[in-house]
Amino acid sequence: MSEVQLNDAPRDVQEEQLARMVLSGRVLWHLWHQAPRAEVLTELGAFLDEWPLGEERTDVQVGLTKMKAGISADSKALAMDYADLFVGPDALKAAPWGSVYLNEEQSTFGETTLAVRKFFREHGMEIETGEREPDDHIGLMFAFIAWLGEQGLEQEEHEPLQPYFCSLRTFLEDHLMTWAPRLCELVEQQAETEFYQGLAQLTAGVLAEMASMTGADIKPARLYR
C-alpha cells in the first residue's frame, strides 16, 4: 500500500494494518531471539494456522508449511540448529546482526549498531533484555516494529497514524531491509531443520509485505557476507 493509499485509507484499515504488523512482529521477535521452548512450540502451531500478515504470498505460505512440519522435530535438534546458525561456539552460519553484513570488518557494536540504537531512542524505546547485545539483532528489530505499531494503536481517534507508517518505512529502508533478506537467504541454505528453513522464508515474505504496506523503497547496500 503506497503512502497516498495509506493517507486515503479509512482509520479502521490503517489500524488493522498496524495490528497485523504488531502480531507478526511479536512472534518473529521471539523466534529469532531465542530457540523455542517446548511449550512455545505447542502454542505456535495454532497461531501459524492464523498467520496475520502476507498470508497470500507464496513465500509466506511455503514458510508456514515448513515451520508447521518442523514443529514436531525434537526440541534438542531445534536448539542445536538455532545455536549453529546464530549463537556458536563455532563460526556462525547466519549471524543475526545487521552490522556483520554491512561493515567490512563484520563486527558488532559499530556504526550500524549505534545507528539502530539511535533510531530506537528517538522513538522512545530502550532495549532491555538483561544481556549486553547489539541493538541490530533481527529479533530486537522485530520487537521494535511491534512496539512502534502498538504506540500507533494506542493513539486517540483524532491522532493521525501516518507518522507511524512513515517511521516504519524509514526503519525498513535504512536499517532492516538493507541486509535482512541476505540473512534469510543464508538461514534457508544453512539450516538443518525444516522449522528454521521455514522461518527464513516466512520472514522474507513478511518483510516484503511490510515494505509494500509502508511504501518502503528497498535500497541496495554493499554486503560483506
UniProtKB/TrEMBL annotation:
<protein>
    <submittedName>
        <fullName>Tat proofreading chaperone DmsD</fullName>
    </submittedName>
</protein>
<keyword id="KW-0143">Chaperone</keyword>
<dbReference type="InterPro" id="IPR036411">
    <property type="entry name" value="TorD-like_sf"/>
</dbReference>
<dbReference type="InterPro" id="IPR026269">
    <property type="entry name" value="DmsD-type"/>
</dbReference>
<dbReference type="InterPro" id="IPR050289">
    <property type="entry name" value="TorD/DmsD_chaperones"/>
</dbReference>
<dbReference type="Pfam" id="PF02613">
    <property type="entry name" value="Nitrate_red_del"/>
</dbReference>
<dbReference type="InterPro" id="IPR020945">
    <property type="entry name" value="DMSO/NO3_reduct_chaperone"/>
</dbReference>
